[in-house]
Amino acid sequence: MIPLVAFIPPASVLTVMAHPDDAELWAGGTLALCVAAGADVTIAVPRHPEPRASEAAAGAAALGAGLHQINQATAGTVRELLLDTGPEVVLTHPVRDVHPDHRRIAEAVLEALPEVVIATGHPRRVYTTDTYNSLTLDGPVPAHTTVDITTTWVTKQRALAAHASQPITEHFGPMAEILARLWGARIGVDHAENFVPLPVLGRLPAALTL
What we know:
By secondary structure, the chain is an alpha/beta fold. The protein has one domain (about 10-200): Rossmann fold. It has helices spanning about 20-35, 50-65, 75-85, 100-120, 155-160, 170-185, and strands at about 10-15, 40-45, 65-70, 90, 125-130, 135, 140, 145-150, 190-200. A seven-stranded mixed β-sheet has the order 3-2-1-4-5-9-8, with helices on both faces. A two-stranded antiparallel ribbon has the order 6-7. The chain is globular, with a radius of gyration of 15 Å.
């Protein structure tokens, strides 16, 4: 069983994702926990046409997060975003995600990180999120930093429901429920989300907390 540790939220979190509902789906409960603890939380996604742009704003608002809709998700735009926000923690997709859009975003974040970290010291920690049925191109997502989101599960559901143009009820919502219960069972709670650290200039987080 993965050890359950007290959740210590970072001061600021930037979530860089490929689609307007990704932050809610893969990290919504944890982001809501961070907001409730007073953290500055920002969701960044490429700009999509309506109604998805409005849904992105509604989903972020449901979590209490800010929103950046960027025109192009390149290493350059991610670099500028990191410099502008100076987050303590960054969340993004698995580098070997099964979805090509997710992989491109993760690669842009990885390319942008070294220069920004050397110049500013931030972000201090970077994590990848879960993915479809917890399977990457290299196999299952490893259990690492598993966060109890039982108290914010309803908030996550409400944020997901804001994306009415997407198959939330018939597809993404049930998958989110299954994954949250599976991760929760590993640490003995009702619902949880899992994150895997990425090295930042050769360093990994020292503790199992964000």
